[in-house]
C-alpha cells in the first residue's frame, strides 16, 4: 500500500473517507487564502535570509519560486486531498518547481501550526475591516434619512402599545447609535488581535535564531504574541468576533421586526417599494416583506453558529487541536459572510422605507400617546406631583375611551371633571396649552431634554453622528493604507531577495 504523501511516520495512505470528508473540504478555500499564504512565505524567506539561517542563494531561489507561484495564481496548483491541507499542497508545488533541497528549507524554524494561526489572523483582519466598512455604510444611510425625516411624527411604542409620539428620523438616529456600538466592538477586536503568531512554531518556539518582530512588521501586524503556546492555541479573537456578530444580528432582527409590524396593513406606517417585496402564489393581493423575514431568520442562524463554535472549542485542550482551531472556528467565516450580506440588506431597508406621513401623525394624535404630555402639563401648571397628575390623566383617558373620543378631543372640561373626582377641585388649565400638549407635533418638539426627539435635540445628535462616522471611516481607511504599505514593503524585500 502506498505510504502517506506528507509523512514517513505514516506507512499507509490516507483512507478515502478521510480524504473525502475531512481533507477535500479544507481545500475549497485554497484560492481565497492563496495570496495570504504566499505573503507568510515571503515574510519568512526574507527573515531567514536576514538572520543568516539560510544561504542567500537558497533564499533567492525560494523567493523567485514563491513570486512565480504568485504570478501564476492558485489555479496552477494541483490540489490533492491526500496532502491534507492548503499548506502541504502549496509546499509540494513549490518543491516541484525548485527541488526538494531548496524548497524544503522554507519550513526552517516554523510549523504548520503557527502558519495556520497567522493565516486566521490575516483573514480575520480583512474580514473585520470589511464588516466595519459595511456597518459605516448602514449607519450613514440611517443618518441621511434621519435628517430627511427628522420632523415626520409617528407613534412610538412600548410593549407594542402606543406610548409617546416620536419622529421617524429620531428612530433612525437610534438605529445608528446602536450600530455604532457594534462598530466599536468589532474595531476593538480588530485592534487587539493584530498580533503575529508566526515564529511560535508548533507551540514551544524554535532553536533557530528567528526574528519574530521582522515577520510581524512585514505582514502588517502591530507586534507578535509573546507566548508561543497561546499564539497557536488560541482563536479567542474569532470567537470574540463571532460574539459581536451575534449581538449585531440580534439588533438588526429587532429593527426588522419593527418594520415588519409597521408595514402590515393594520399599521401601514411604513411602505416599501415593490422591488423589495414578494407576492403569493395563490393570494394576488399579497405584498410580502421578504427582506425583513430573511434578516430575522438569519439572525438565529448566526447566534447558532456562535453556540456551535463555543461548544466545540470548550472541549478542546489549550494547545493546537483540529477541533479547537479548525472545526471550532469554521462558523466564524460563515457568520461573517452572512453578516456582510445582511448588512447590505439592512441598508436597503433603511434606504427604501418610506413613512406614511399623514397617517403616522394622525395616529399619534388619536391613540392617546400624547397623554404623558398632558400629565407633564399638569405638573407644570397646577403644581401637582407627577403621580397625582398621572391619576388624573388616567381617569381622563378612561372617560374619553368610554365616550368613543380620540386623544385630541380631550378638553379642559373633561380634565376638570376628573380632577374633581381625584383631587376634589378643578385644575383650570389654559385651553391653548392643553391643545398644544395633545398635538403630537407640538408634543414632540416640547421634549427638549438631551437625547429627545425634538429638533433642538435631534439635530445636534445627527451632527455628532456624521462626525463620528467620518472619523471612523477615516480610521478604517488608514488601517487599509498601513497594510497596503506593509504589503509593498514585503513585496519589495522579496523581490530584492530574489535579485529582481
UniProtKB/TrEMBL annotation:
Q: Boundaries of each Fumarate lyase N-terminal domain copy?
A: 75-304
Q: Which Pfam families match?
A: ASL_C2, Lyase_1
Argininosuccinate lyase C-terminal domain location: 368-444
Q: Where in the cell is it found?
A: Cytoplasm
Q: Which keywords appear in this protein's UniProt record, sorted alphabetically? A: Amino-acid biosynthesis, Arginine biosynthesis, Cytoplasm, Lyase
Q: What InterPro entries does its record include?
A: Arg_succ_lyase_C, Argininosuccinate_lyase, Fumarase/histidase_N, Fumarate_lyase_fam, Fumarate_lyase_N, L-Aspartase-like
Keyword Amino-acid biosynthesis in annotation:
yes
Name the reaction it catalyses. Answer: 2-(N(omega)-L-arginino)succinate = fumarate + L-arginine
Keyword Lyase listed: yes
Using the UniProt record, name the top-level EC class of this enzyme in a single word: lyase
Any Gene Ontology CC annotation: cytosol
Please list the GO terms describing molecular function.
argininosuccinate lyase activity
Q: Which coarse location class describes where this protein primarily resides? A: cytoplasm
Which Gene Ontology BP annotations are present? L-arginine biosynthetic process via ornithine
Pathway where this protein functions: Amino-acid biosynthesis; L-arginine biosynthesis; L-arginine from L-ornithine and carbamoyl phosphate: step 3/3
Q: Which superkingdom does the taxonomy of this entry point to?
A: Bacteria
User: What are its E.C. numbers?
Assistant: 4.3.2.1
Stated family: In the N-terminal section; belongs to the lyase 1 family. Argininosuccinate lyase subfamily. Belongs to the lyase 1 family. Argininosuccinate lyase subfamily.
Q: What is this protein called?
A: Argininosuccinate lyase
Amino acid at each position: 500500500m502506498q505510504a502517506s504523501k506528507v509523512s514517513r511516520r505514516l506507512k499507509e495512505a490516507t483512507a478515502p473517507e478521510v480524504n473525502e470528508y475531512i481533507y477535500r473540504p479544507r481545500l475549497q478555500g485554497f484560492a481565497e487564502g492563496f495570496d495570504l499564504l504566499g505573503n507568510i512565505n515571503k515574510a519568512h524567506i526574507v527573515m531567514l535570509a536576514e538572520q543568516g539561517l539560510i544561504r542567500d542563494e537558497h533564499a533567492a531561489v525560494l523567493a523567485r519560486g514563491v513570486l512565480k507561484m504568485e504570478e501564476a495564481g492558485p489555479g496552477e496548483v494541483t490540489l490533492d486531498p491526500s496532502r491534507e491541507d492548503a499548506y502541504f499542497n502549496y509546499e509540494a508545488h513549490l518543491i516541484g518547481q525548485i527541488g526538494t533541497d531548496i524548497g524544503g528549507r522554507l519550513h526552517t524554524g516554523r510549523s504548520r501550526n503557527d502558519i495556520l494561526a497567522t493565516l486566521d489572523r490575516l483573514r480575520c483582519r480583512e474580514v473585520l475591516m470589511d464588516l466595519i466598512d459595511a456597518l459605516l455604510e448602514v449607519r450613514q444611510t440611517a443618518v441621511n434619512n434621519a435628517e430627511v425625516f427628522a420632523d415626520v411624527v409617528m407613534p412610538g411604542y412600548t410593549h407594542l402599545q402606543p406610548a409617546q409620539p416620536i419622529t421617524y428620523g429620531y428612530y433612525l438616529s437610534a438605529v445608528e447609535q446602536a450600530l455604532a456600538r457594534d462598530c466599536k466592538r468589532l474595531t476593538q477586536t480588530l485592534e487587539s488581535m493584530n498580533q503575529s503568531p508566526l515564529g511560535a512554531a508548533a507551540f514551544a518556539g524554535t532553536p533557530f535564531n528567528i526574528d519574530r518582530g521582522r515577520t510581524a512588521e512585514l505582514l502588517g501586524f502591530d507586534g507578535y504574541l509573546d507566548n508561543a503556546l497561546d499564539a497557536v492555541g488560541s482563536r479567542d479573537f474569532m470567537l470574540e468576533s463571532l460574539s459581536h456578530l451575534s449581538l449585531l444580528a440580534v439588533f438588526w432582527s429587532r429593527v426588522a421586526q419593527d418594520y415588519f409590524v409597521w408595514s402590515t396593513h393594520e399599521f401601514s406606517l411604513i411602505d416599501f417599494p415593490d422591488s423589495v417585496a414578494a407576492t403569493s402564489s395563490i393570494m394576488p393581493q399579497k405584498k410580502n416583506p421578504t427582506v425583513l423575514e430573511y434578516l430575522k431568520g438569519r439572525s438565529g442562524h448566526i447566534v447558532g453558529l456562535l453556540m456551535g463554535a463555543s461548544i466545540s472549542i470548550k472541549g478542546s485542550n489549550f494547545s493546537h487541536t483540529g477541533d479547537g482551531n479548525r472545526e471550532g472556528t469554521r462558523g466564524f467565516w460563515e457568520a461573517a459572510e452572512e453578516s456582510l450580506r445582511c448588512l447590505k440588506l439592512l441598508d436597503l431597508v433603511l434606504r427604501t422605507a418610506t413613512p406614511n406621513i399623514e397617517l403616522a401623525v394622525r395616529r399619534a394624535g388619536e391613540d392617546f400617546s400624547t397623554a404623558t404630555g398632558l400629565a407633564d402639563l399638569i405638573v407644570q401648571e397646577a403644581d401637582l406631583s407627577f403621580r397625582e397628575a398621572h391619576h388624573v390623566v388616567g381617569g381622563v383617558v378612561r372617560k374619553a375611551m368610554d365616550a368613543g373620543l380620540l386623544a385630541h378631543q380631550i378638553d379642559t372640561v373633561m380634565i376638570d371633571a376628573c380632577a374633581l373626582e381625584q383631587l376634589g377641585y378643578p385644575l383650570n388649565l389654559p385651553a391653548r396649552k392643553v391643545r398644544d400638549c395633545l398635538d403630537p407635533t407640538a408634543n414632540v418638539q416640547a421634549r427638549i431634554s438631551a437625547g429627545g426627539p425634538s429638533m433642538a435635540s435631534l439635530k445636534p445628535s445627527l451632527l455628532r453622528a456624521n462626525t463620528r462616522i467620518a472619523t471612523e471611516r477615516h480610521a478604517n481607511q488608514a488601517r487599509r493604507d498601513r497594510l497596503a504599505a506593509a504589503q509593498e514593503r514585503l513585496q519589495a524585500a522579496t523581490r530584492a531577495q530574489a535579485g529582481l
